[in-house]
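Hi R.,

As promised on Friday, here is the backbone we talked about, encoded as structure tokens. Could you run it through your design pipeline when you get a chance and send me back a sequence?
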């Protein structure tokens, strides 16, 4: 049920149509029920807004006295273009990098001014319907292009949380027009955002390197841990234990390039299409750091979920907008299970049970399924994305989702089929976790086994799952390969000009949307060598210890970890104009307005016959996933169309 605005052909017909709608009328062309008028528009002689189904709107639109009917732009602004004209993202055309594996296509080791504002292929790709709309007939490893990007939304007044390894807060990608970082920390800055009066009145603040207000680390810890160390109005929000290792240096770094970060993953996620100045869609969003995966702060996932929940529930009203900022969380991580080559692995597969040896050759569908998995665990033979094995963690995640947090999850990098829906044939599949010797606590899984092929059991891909309605509020994102098929590669017989899933990406109907990922240029992290790939030219200006040289880096970022932030960025744009949207409304937007389903010839599905073992062993198989690619239509300079609704007598244009 949505709200539709209609206009009669002449004022003399207004009472006839309006009165027939708001009573249980049997008039031809009018639904046979009492319709709610949500806005009678007494000031207008011809218009009114009503709560209708799509079928009812179509029926009313055929009435001879109805001039037009459309989704209400007031109640459904996401279906219409932003009224401001499309604007070019950069002052002039910039370099757009796609292939980063070929030396000739990489950013230079000694960057010049030509590298200023450079960006990645994902920013451009989500602004077009098909790859050929910008890249033409180029195939293979596509080199750098020079162009610009349209935009109309920026993610302003939206809180984007990066639940990951930590973020290097003073990287140039995060510095706003005032010279201040847009990155804050849930633990160390969240208390001041929620309860500033307490810290101001007790002289517990300091000035950060960029001029922002910070609070003493000890005071921040105490606010979370002790109800007497906060204002009385927040005494009942609960407590969370914070490890001593949770310091500003370990969580986000201090003084520019200096940090105790042990991984660059979180920094790359925050930038890669989520919220970076050049690399992200939501480049004016507020970025919040929530380390808990491969981090240096020793914080667990259950505490992560609790902290984000409390932050979301207690954040203040934004004085500019008059409402609380919406919250979208990016989760580019997951849980793994694994086995070694010589292990005897117990399984359940599509209703049948048995065992196989880890390195057994492919002889049936089960051994094909395990053989097609991409190992992600050092020392193991094969691994797969699975559950948290913890009721506490799963419940904490569900509680967070119930408060209205929007969650975007990376699908995983195991080339694994993810099912969705109660009737999916792989819903109860499991394998024994010989590597970690763990068990999923739910009764569906025998001792020593964990689920392997369905989102219902997974964390974070299944966060907030409602078994009553069979609805998954979390958005699960698959990774696109940067390589464009040429008929020979990435596999023999591939359709020329087709894009593909990344060979490692999880797949299946549990994938909500595909997003650019492989070889994505993103922000690097100083002191972490694997994230110091390409020096930047805009160094020496933002809280660094040097005025020359390559103080900051960009990185070659890959995986579904890179795909999820692309979607997070687009969701932030949607929330900018729809701040009260629920998870279901966000998904409706994503499916109806935030993506395109491309033709079969434009997105590869190498082996689609599920009766063959190649269905499981192939690296470029969709396994039931839709060919749905993320699309940012808010920036399009062309006239938009509204899916499922016929609009007559009115035109929308951006100039």
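Update: got your reply. Pasting your designed sequence below so it's all in one thread:
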């Amino acid at each position: 049920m949505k709200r539709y605005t209609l206009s009669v052909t002449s004022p003399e017909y207004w009472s006839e149509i309006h009165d027939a709608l708001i009573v249980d009328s049997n008039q031809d062309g009018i639904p046979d029920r009492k319709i709610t008028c949500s806005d009678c528009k007494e000031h207008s002689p011809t218009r009114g807004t009503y709560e209708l189904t799509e079928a009812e709107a179509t029926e009313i639109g055929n009435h001879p006295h109805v001039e037009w009917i459309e989704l209400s732009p007031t109640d459904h602004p996401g279906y219409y273009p932003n009224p401001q004209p499309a604007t070019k993202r950069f002052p002039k055309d910039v370099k757009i990098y796609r292939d980063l594996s070929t030396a000739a296509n990489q950013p230079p080791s000694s960057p010049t001014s030509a590298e200023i504002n450079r960006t990645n292929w994902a920013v451009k790709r989500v602004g077009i319907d098909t790859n050929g709309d910008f890249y033409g007939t180029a195939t293979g490893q596509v080199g750098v292009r020079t162009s610009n990007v349209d935009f109309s939304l920026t993610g302003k007044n939206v809180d984007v949380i990066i639940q990951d390894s930590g973020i290097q807060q003073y990287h140039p990608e995060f510095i706003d027009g005032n010279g201040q970082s847009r990155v804050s920390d849930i633990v160390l800055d969240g208390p001041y955002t929620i309860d500033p009066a307490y810290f101001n009145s007790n002289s517990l603040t300091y000035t950060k390197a960029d001029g922002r207000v910070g609070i003493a680390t000890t005071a921040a810890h105490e606010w979370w841990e002790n109800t007497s160390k906060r204002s009385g109005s927040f005494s009942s929000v609960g407590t969370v234990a914070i490890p001593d290792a949770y310091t500003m240096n370990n969580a986000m770094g201090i003084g520019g390039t200096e940090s105790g970060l042990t991984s660059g993953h979180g920094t790359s996620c925050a930038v890669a299409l989520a919220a970076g100045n050049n690399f992200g869609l939501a480049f004016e969003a507020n970025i919040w750091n929530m380390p808990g995966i491969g981090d240096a702060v020793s914080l667990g996932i259950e505490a992560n979920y609790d902290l984000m929940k409390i932050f979301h529930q207690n954040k203040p009203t934004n004085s500019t907008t008059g409402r609380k900022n919406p919250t979208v969380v990016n989760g580019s991580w997951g849980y793994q299970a694994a086995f070694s080559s010589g292990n005897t692995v117990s399984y359940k597969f599509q209703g049948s049970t048995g065992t196989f040896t880890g390195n057994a050759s492919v002889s049936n569908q089960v051994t094909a399924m395990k053989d097609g998995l991409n190992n992600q665990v050092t020392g193991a033979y094969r691994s797969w994305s699975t559950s948290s094995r913890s009721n506490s963690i799963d419940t904490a995640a569900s509680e967070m989702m119930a408060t209205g947090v929007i969650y975007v999850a990376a699908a995983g990098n195991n080339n694994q089929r993810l099912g969705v829906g109660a009737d999916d044939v792989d819903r109860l599949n499991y394998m024994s976790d010989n590597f970690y010797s763990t068990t999923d606590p739910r009764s569906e899984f025998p001792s020593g086994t964990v689920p392997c092929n369905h989102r219902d059991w997974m964390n974070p891909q299944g966060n907030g799952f409602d078994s009553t309605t069979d609805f998954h509020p979390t958005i699960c994102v698959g990774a696109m390969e940067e390589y464009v098929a040429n008929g020979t590669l990435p596999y023999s017989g591939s359709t020329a000009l087709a894009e593909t899933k990344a060979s490692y990406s999880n797949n299946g109907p549990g994938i909500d949307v595909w997003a650019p990922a492989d070889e994505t240029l993103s922000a690097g992290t100083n002191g972490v060598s694997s994230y110091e790939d390409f020096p930047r030219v805009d160094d020496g200006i933002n809280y660094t210890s040097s005025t020359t040289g390559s103080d900051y880096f960009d990185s070659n970022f890959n995986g579904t970890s890179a795909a999820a932030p692309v979607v997070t960025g687009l969701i932030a744009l949607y929330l900018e104009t729809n701040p009260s949207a629920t998870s279901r409304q966000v998904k409706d937007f994503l499916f109806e307005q935030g993506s395109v389903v491309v033709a079969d010839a434009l997105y590869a599905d190498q082996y689609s016959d599920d009766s063959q073992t190649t269905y499981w062993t192939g690296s470029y198989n969709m396994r039931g996933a839709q060919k749905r690619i993320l699309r940012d239509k808010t920036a399009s300079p062309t006239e938009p169309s509204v899916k499922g609704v016929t609009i007559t007598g009115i035109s929308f244009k951006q100039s």
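One thing I noticed while checking it: Confidence is low (pLDDT under 50) at residues 542-550, 637-655.

Thanks again,
M.
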